[in-house]
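Re: your question from the hallway

Yes, I did run it. Sequences:
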Amino acid sequence: MNTSEETPNPNPLEARQALAAVASTQSTSLRRGIYSRRFAVIVSLWAGALAASLGTGWLLIVLFGGIFAHHRWRQNHTEAWINEVQSVADLWKVVVLSVLVGGLFLGALVGLERFQWGWAPVIAGAIIAVTLYTTMELSYRQFWARVKPSQPTA
Amino acid sequence: MLRVEHSTIAASSNFERMDDLNPVIHAPHRLKLCAMLSPLEEAEFQLLREELGVSESVLSKHVTQLVDAGYVKVRQGATNGRARKWASLTSRGRKAFAAHVRALRNLVDLAGDDRN
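Structure:
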């Protein structure tokens, strides 16, 4: 029997079985941890509302209300939470999305402050909501495609 | 019963660097625990119990061993007055698990090469 000080010495068959168990368990884990479509809708609407509330007294309320609600929910009500950035490609998607959303926010602010376009924040909010939901929906489908047991990811 | 002491934590770090099989992670329940946590930021104990099919005491024992090795951290919370616990892999734990999976894969690949 192996003690904590001894290196385990499985044969190749046992190693293959261990890898299969890892792959299967990771698939199960992804299924349990993937965010729901409802969450994607809520986040997208919140981001859109945030942009649309630029220049109004609602901005801080929407911002901090959303952050607080998400924090409380994550702290006490989720049973599992997926790691959204699972690869370098995922990281790049987050960077590009952040730049795009940031640019839209900035554009809305410039439109409102400099050109007095009252509709700029609303248009930006709509674009942000649709873009964010589309991205999250695509990620959601990609994650579900990954949950088929295959090679374990390390 | 396995005991993970500080000398073993230091020894474990050698396995993390060398892509050798990690004795702390290799036990079936702990391997599945790490596999369960690897794609997640964190998971609740109840979920881990359900998916691993073990009792609370068995799960706690294995989680404690992983915590002692520095691979897992535990967060406590409460919902409607009910105490809840969540576990997550530390960055050290993620690297150790990744190294262990690579070592298993190398073992399988080597066996395939020997047959050829």
